[in-house]
Amino acid sequence: MSRLDVLLWIAVPYVCLAVFAVGHAWRLRTGRLSWTTRSTQILESRLLRPGVLLFHGGLLAVIGGHVLGVLVPASATEAVGVDEHLYHTVSVAAGTTAGTAMTAGFLLLLFRRTSVPRVRRTTTATDKLTYAVLGLVILTGMYATVGENLLGGGYDYRETVAPWFRGLFTLDPAVAEMAGAPLVYQAHALLVFGLYALWPFSRLVHAWSVPVRFVTRAPVLYRRRATATRPAPVVPLRVAPPVATGSSNGGAPSVPERVAQA
Fold it and tell me: How far is it, in rounded angstroms, from Cα 149 to Cα 88?
């Protein structure tokens, strides 16, 4: 185990996890008002809707596949009757489908952000860095799934990458196994930890904002602005009748007459 292996597969992951935890606490304490997606739906919604649905739907499926493939040991799946061949077949088919949906959504959102002028003007430097890192994470992940496992000879990452990742949380990472993994898996893992370090300082923090009170809050009413199709009718003014004089009220003088007599 070389010093570079210790740096890449022990020091870097723990530093990124520390930044992830401390950064979220700092952001919550000092920047609670900025804890938002900074949504641009009001600026453009035609491309946003399909992009968001594809990206988030595919992302949830990808996360589920990573939990099953990395956090669950191979012995656990074999104990319930899922052998390596069945797991590999399901993993590649489901991973390719979910990854394709997530990639399509990401590209659609990226196109929207770069091609719509009003949306582009709201993009910050942190947004650009987040898009770049996230794009590389998706690229390496898709290459590992499609290039290595679907089109290539296949690689059992549950024997190398998975034990190393689980070992990080038990303070016993399998450095030698990770150091021998293919380059694309190593790059994918380092990019993911880089995304973890960037997470607290970007709009990705909205992932932890679960709208629990949305179900019980009062509805928001939107009213359409009324447009006049024809001019409003002109109402004629009514002229008040003249004040009655003294001869019409039984000889009693009127108010103006009493004032004149005084």
Answer: 8
Tell me the residue ranges of DSSP E strands in the chain.
Answer: none
Query: What are the residue boundaries of the structural domains of the chain, listed by start?
Result: 3-207
User: What would the two tokens of residue 199 be?
Assistant: 């997470």
pLDDT in tens, 131-152: 999 999 999 999 999 999 989 8
pTM: predicted TM-score of the whole model, two decimal places = 0.79
**Identity of residue 38:** R
Angle between helices 161-169 and 183-198 (to 10 degrees): 30
Task: Check: CB of residue 196 under 8 Å from CB of residue 159.
Answer: no
Does pLDDT of 238 surpass 80?
Answer: no
| pLDDT tens digits for range 199-216 | 999 999 989 887 777 778
What would the DSSP string read from start to end of 164-210? HHHHHHTT---HHHHHTS-HHHHHHHHHHHHHHHHGGGSGGGGGG--
What letter would DSSP give residue 154? -
As a whole number, mean pLDDT of residues 123-135 equals: 96
Handedness of CA 127, 120, 141, 70 (dihedral sign): positive
- Report the alpha-carbon distance of residue 110 to residue 104 in Å, rounded: 10
Which fold is adopted by the domain 3-207? Fumarate Reductase Cytochrome B subunit (1.20.950)
CB 64 within 8 A of CB 107: no
